[in-house]
Design a protein that fits this description.
The complex is a heterodimer of chains A (434) and B (203). Helices cover 41% and strands 12% of the residues of chain A. Chain A is an alpha/beta fold and 434 residues long. Chain A folds into three domains: 208 residues, NADH-ubiquinone oxidoreductase 51kDa subunit (Rossmann fold, 3-Layer(aba) Sandwich); 82 residues, Ubiquitin-like (UB roll) (Roll), CATH 3.10.20.600; 98 residues, de novo design (two linked rop proteins), CATH 1.20.1440. In chain A, the strands form three sheets. In chain A, strands 3-2-1-4 form a four-stranded parallel sheet, sandwiched between helices. Chain A has a four-stranded mixed sheet with strand order 8-7-10-9, with no helix packed on it. Chain A has a two-stranded antiparallel sheet with strand order 5-6. In chain A, helix 2 crosses helix 10 and helix 5 packs across helix 7. Chain B is an alpha+beta fold. In chain B, helix 1 packs antiparallel against helix 2. Chain B is elongated and about 60 Å long. The chains are: A alpha/beta (434), B alpha+beta (203). At the A-B interface, helix 7, strand 3, strand 7, strand 10 and helix 14 of A face helix 2, helix 4, helix 5, strand 4 and helix 8 of B.
Chain lengths: 434, 203
Amino acid sequence: MALTDAAPIVTSRREFDDSHTIDRFLATGGFAGLRKALSMTPEAVAAEVDAASLLGRGGAGFPAGRKWSMLRRADLAYLVINGDESEPATFKDHLLLESEPHQLIEGVVIAAWALQVNQAFIFIRGEFALGLERVQAALNDAYAQGALGQNIFGSGFSLDIVVHPGAGAYICGEETALIESLEGKRGFPRIKPPFFPAAIGLYGEPTVVNNVETVSNLPWIIENGGAAFAALGAGRSTGTRLFALAGHVNKPGVYELEMAKTTFRDLIYAPSLGGGIRRGNQLKAFIPGGVSAPWFFPEQVDLALGQDEVAEAGSMLGSGSIVVMDDSTCMVRAAWRITKFFSRESCGQCTPCREGSGWLERVLYRLEHGGGRMEDVDLLLDLADNIAPGLTWPPQQTTICVLGPSIPSSINSAISHFRDEFVAHVHDGGCSHG
Amino acid sequence: MSHLNPDILKRCEDTLALYPKRRSALIPLCHLAQEQEGYLSEAAMIEIAELVGVTPAEVQGTASFYDMLHLEPVGRYVVGVCTNIACLINGADEMLEHAESALGTHVGGTTSDGLFTLEETECLADCDRAPCVQVNHRFVRTTTPELFDELVDDLRAGRRGDEIPPHGTLVRVQRSGGLRASADEIAGQRSKLRSEIEGRAKR
């Protein structure tokens, strides 16, 4: 497999330092997709998105067109954009919010037209002060341009968008928790069913929640057609996707790549991408889709960056973030820190997650810092099995949302491949890594 | 007598006008109130409760869920050091230790001059510049102890004030108010749009 020269879709203005300004946006084809969409029927716009086979870019990879089609037919409905990017090592929406805010808004208006929704919210992670500032400035520009507000571009269609700041809670990336938070409450995920807010969402009304990157693709899809988008990529993985590469690589960053055409090896080692592992070290393990995903190891490095390819190998492409760990990395420490994250971010509603995450974290802590016992290794697996029975992937659900059952991913991955390291931590009375 | 100052109160009212239901403004209003004192004082929570139409306990109960909303006073600069996985394997623990000694306080603590509060944060989504440091939720990109010391010197000397305003993630978010008008006009335009939508819903 090789790198393809597919032109970027959502980062096409990346070469410009002023890509966030309305002037640059208008000078580079801004609103062309929206103007075209408004000349089409809402059904025709939705059909193009269906034809594009656009998979949601937030983490679950659910087809965007299908999500739209589930919207309960109602005259009062809402569109909510999820910009609460918090999955560890994921930083691609951060880039889009700061550098392509107008493209995002154009995408939101297109989605709203297709769904015939008149009120949208863009929920932005509170820690993104600059992203909040840029998107709000872009909204103000869009109202001034007539691309938003009443009678958009003379079409008779009206849409109002509100930028809503989060306040620091990973769980609000879960769409029903996000809705609760947007209603001014604690970010508690809602009990399913209904499985989708398309049935009962914001203020009890039908609601579609789409990720920032997902809707940022819409202007291009409408301008170029769903078929052109579907022609990129392979299999179910159509179009391009943003991959956030972090960890022990020489050139960490966000790379837009044609889906399923590039391998993890290309992404990590190609000079134009990750540029190889720092200090010439060897690859020990990598996380393919955010810390909720089971880890991969050198034997999986030639897999393609595609939704199904990664799923068939037992993990998930998730939020499109890849963390590379070289051979100097302590696997106990890595598993401990990831588990500490889940323990801190568990919303506390469900016992397996609330109690299990803290228990796991404390056992991992004592292994890492001295005080671990030989039976701790199996204790970890036993506890993990109580949160996600069978430790299968995808995990069995014991809780309201998927946060809990994702906790065992890193623990199970680390122990199954590096059990000897856990044992050594017991023998050595803690970590002997640097 | 309002506890929130007139500027913040005005922006609270503008923000309330943005939402179909007042309670949705609860968290944005907490952000705005924190601009005034850095944290949510009891008086601020009581006023927010009145503004959004819930009890003060509901404001406190909601705010206590969120990392960015402080129920106790914090320093002028809240310094966050991420130690999550991508930062961890790029020297975050060393950075946090350095921050503790450079600032003279521990994680969760505030310096005696009231200038700095130090926090250990979860992933801040800036992983290609690890280890990641934020001050008042601005990415400062100080990835080495030397750069961190420079940052602290600058902040102590009152430099970088433009880049890092005191408190509040919304400090520079200038809302034109959606439909671009004053609070009264926004409210008017929105209620018009809303009754139009709801009128359709009834048909």
